[in-house]
Write a structure and sequence with these properties.
6-stranded antiparallel sheet; 5-stranded antiparallel sheet; mainly beta; 13 strands
């Protein structure tokens, strides 16, 4: 599957997902970010902390990285979306096994792609 963003496709939640972080990082383009370790399961994501102390996983492609610090290249929120099996969502973006989605109530956040079915197939990514 192409790792580039794909715009506005519908999907059905195949497996419940509960958001893991209640107050994740939010960054604006140009913000300085302190960087931690890359995700051991998916090196395309890196632990990031903003100047207000909030932390979360961010896609590496959203950052300009220089050693242990970086600068946000675009606005980003690590907010996850709690979703229930059978719920229909709209996929806005897709990055390295995660999708940014919006539900019918207008709530947006990230979900693991492996929890979704798109056009009758479950989205699967290598582990």
């Amino acid at each position: 599957m192409n790792e580039q963003s794909k715009k506005l496709r519908n999907a059905t939640v195949a497996k419940d997902y509960h958001a893991q972080y209640s107050d994740p990082i939010v960054m604006r383009s140009g913000d300085e970010i302190v960087l931690g370790e890359r995700d051991t399961e998916n090196v395309d994501w890196i632990w990031s902390t903003s100047s207000d102390g909030r932390s979360g996983w961010a896609p590496v492609i959203y950052l300009s990285i220089d050693g242990g610090s970086g600068r946000a290249l675009r606005d980003y929120s690590a907010m996850e979306l709690t979703a229930t099996a059978g719920e229909v969502i709209e996929i806005c973006e897709e990055h390295s096994g995660w999708v940014l989605a919006t539900n019918s109530r207008g709530e947006s956040g990230w979900l693991p792609a492996e929890h979704l079915k798109v056009e009758g197939i479950t989205m699967e990514y290598p582990t």
